[in-house]
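Below is one such record:
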Amino acid sequence: MTVLGCPQEYRAVIHWRGGARPFTSPGVSALTSVKWNRTLNDTGEAEISIAKGAAGARCCGLLGQVEPYAHELSLYRDTELVWQGPVTRVRENRDRFLIEARDMTEWLARTTNALVLRFVAATGATRRGPVQEIAETIIRLNMETGLLASEPDWAKMLNYIVRDDDPTEVSFEKDGTDNTSIWFVPILRIMDEELVPRGLEYTTVGRALILGRPRTTADPTQARLTLDHIAGDVEIIRDGLSAATLMWITNQTDQQISDTQFGASGVITSVYGRLDTLVRTQAEGLTAYDLWQLARASFVGRHPAPTALSVPDGSTLAPSAPVTMRQLVPGVRLDVAATGMCIGVSQPYRLSDVDVAWTESGESVGVSLIPIGDPLQGDPP
């Protein structure tokens, strides 16, 4: 059985943009601390601390030439690449040199869309389809031409996109009343505000950008954990504020209440009475069916009241946890049995965050888990 285990060492390598050509690497003895995380639908961050005295004059001179966005930080857990992304800031004091970086989604946050967002046709390069395909198309068409950059795919990320498509086909447009207007916003904002509500999930592992879908109880689990696999405290949260019996999605605004649409999905029971959650969307061209799809997807995990499990700061996965670092990808399913608690928990979860810290005294791996939903079923009203 594979387990998380304990690494012998961490290595940090500074690469030129693209992640293939090394620039410099502080010696293992000079690397005093490493922090990095993977997160769901957000940008992960990393930071390393280097002891200048142990690094030596030559390494110090090269570190002084590290340039944000011209260089990238790569982190290796023993020989496994676990994190990679552009350097965003360097800091130096008398004793230490610190390098901060963000994961590959940072390139999407720093790239403004120059594409007409009209994914409604049945065929063509910008056809309607799985939301993961739409996300990749927006990224690819903005990056591969290189019209506004030094070279096509200057971030060197198009070959590292991994898709797990949802079978549901969606339409998406954000093109103004003339159907030809460009929405000039960062690509990452398009993903966050328009595509995530339609069922997209994104994260990174190393250089790979993963465009996935919400896992359900129909998906296989990566591991089955118990409280014996967690070192330290845990927190179980039954969150009524996130619960709903009816999820409403509407494109109505306070200024425009006529000629609008809505969609609703839910389960009415006598336990909760009626708990409505209303979400407004500014997406254009949505039909009542589109809004019902959004409502149905947003309802997952809200009924019954979700019970989340968190491993607080200071508590970590034990080295004996039956899961490898390669499997700790935000969004995957992990089953947990937490016996001996007042709120008995034995259910599937989705991994939302992985927070790792390493020093000379060892490694700590924290995780956060959110309830997983059942597969979407049913027909529109």
Q: What stands out?
A: The radius of gyration is 23 Å. The helical segments are 52-55, 57-63, 105-109, 131-143, 187-195, 288-299. The mean pLDDT is 89.
